[in-house]
Amino acid sequence: MTPLSIAGTGACTPIGTRAWQTASSLAAGLSGFTRQAIEGQAEHRATLSRVPGIDPACTGTERLLRLAAPALHEALRSGPSPAAGWPLRRPIPLFMALPEPWAELPGGIDTDRFALELPRALDLALEFLPLTLHASGAVGGADALASAYRFMHAHPDVPEVLVGGVDSLADPAVVPVLYQRRWVQVAGHCEGFVASEAAAFVRLARTPASGEFATVYPPAFAEEPASRVGEASLLDGRALIQASRAALQAARMPADALQAYWSDMDGSAWRGAERASLSAAFAADGGLAPAREPAAFLGEVGAAWVPLMLSLFHEMRQALTHPVMPTRLAGHAGLQTVSGLSTRTAAWVATWDPARPVQPSAGAGRSALPITS
Predict the structure, then answer these.
(1) What is the rounded distance in angstroms from the CA atom of residue 40 to the CA atom of residue 349?
(2) What is the DSSP letter of 358?
(3) What is the DSSP string of 253-286?
(4) Tens digit of pLDDT for each residue in 176-204?
(5) pTM attached to this predicted model
(6) In Å, how far from its chain's centre is CA 189?
(7) What is the DSSP string of 180-214?
(8) 285 has a pLDDT exceeding 80
(9) Cis omega before residue 360 (within 30°)?
(10) What is the pLDDT of residue 365?
(11) Local structure of residue 319 (DSSP, 8 states)
(12) Closest to 297 in 3D by CA, of 54, 32, 23, 52
């Protein structure tokens, strides 16, 4: 089927409660990092990044709802009006990633309540926002994207779908678990990631908007034999390389055509080793494209990564209307990957295309493509 294009996005992060605010803050190098004392450990303070407008004491499903609702509303209202109109006159399927369950937090997220309350937060009837949830963390966003592609392939009469994700590793109930696992960054105690939170949504349509538009290709998956977090030995990046090559193949994109490499890497040792391995694997193809690592300013946002990176990619459109030096984006291609906190890895390609695409050259086509799982 024809690859889907981005019609609208929404985001709620510690550095911006709108998609454009997040992208602008990221471009300016802003962050929202703060410290939180660990209970029972007077000298240990974890580095976190929270959305300022949400009560720090808010936890669990309620916190996820407060993150997701404004981002979903923005995705439905931004860009061209949804094919279903606004208020919605027909259902828009939503495929969404949620945090993966942890043994230390039994019953942490009530998925039934989340599916019930999210449409209500936007004053929508449940049947107008049918949800498919993937509670599998960062790679769950790629699962949601793959599910959206399979749904659109099976239902050719549906004009558009939503893909989203929400997570809060800065949840007051989650931070102590991260500390116990020695995953969260604590000065003088352990070097981990910065626990953060975010929600993001992208509205994907069959028919692109006028002018230059962003296209998203189906994701590819791979898996490491052991967890990448907390291991003494560094990974060789085999899963990341495998997923990246499969994603390029799905988009019919040669590696030397990439202008950017987006990832959820944040400087952690195991991720640095994987990136070095990926760069070495791409050396024969002209090397790895320049890296963009939003986690350096956002922290680890878990299940929100896939739609958030797509939102940031879409917000490159700000360059089109720059008041002094507007820049064309047609032909820009980026490889995006997530490695998350488990064994799974996912990769996909996003491109900026002109309103009237020219006939693609060999090896860089934009024609019908396979749907992978």
Answers:
(1) 45
(2) P
(3) --GGG--EEEE---S-HHHHHHHHHHHHHTGGGT
(4) 998 888 888 786 556 678 999 999 999 99
(5) 0.91
(6) 29
(7) HTT-B-BTTTB--BPB-EEEEEEEEESSPPSSSEE
(8) yes
(9) no
(10) 44
(11) G
(12) 32
Q: Among 54, 64, 35, which Cα is nearest to 179's?
A: 35
CA-based nearest residue to 275, from 319, 234, 310, 240: 240
Q: Whole-angstrom Cα distance, residue 317 to residue 263?
A: 20
Nearest to 261 by CA among 232, 229, 220, 291: 291
Give the pLDDT confidence of 34-49 residue by residue, as tens digits: 988 888 777 788 889 9
Angle at alpha carbon of residue 308, lines to 57 and 223, rounded to 5°: 100
pLDDT tens-digit readout, 290-345: 999 999 999 999 999 999 999 999 999 888 777 777 788 888 999 999 988 888 99
Please report which helix (H) or strand (E) contains residue 216, including its range: strand 213-216
With contact defined as beta carbons under 8 Å apart, do 24 and 14 qualify? no
DSSP, res 105: S
Helix ranges, the chain (H): 19-27, 60-77, 111-121, 138-154, 175-180, 238-250, 269-281, 295-298, 305-314
* Six token digits for residue 114: 């989340």
- CA of 249: how far to CAs of 242, 244, 255, 264, 346, in Å? 11, 9, 9, 21, 14
Q: Report the candidate in 350, 355, 35, 76 with the shortest Cα–Cα distance to residue 203.
A: 76
Dist. CA 80–CA 83, nearest whole Å: 9
Rg (CA), the chain: 20
Residue 188 is predicted with a pLDDT of 58
Alpha-carbon distance of 163 to 180, in angstroms, equals 32
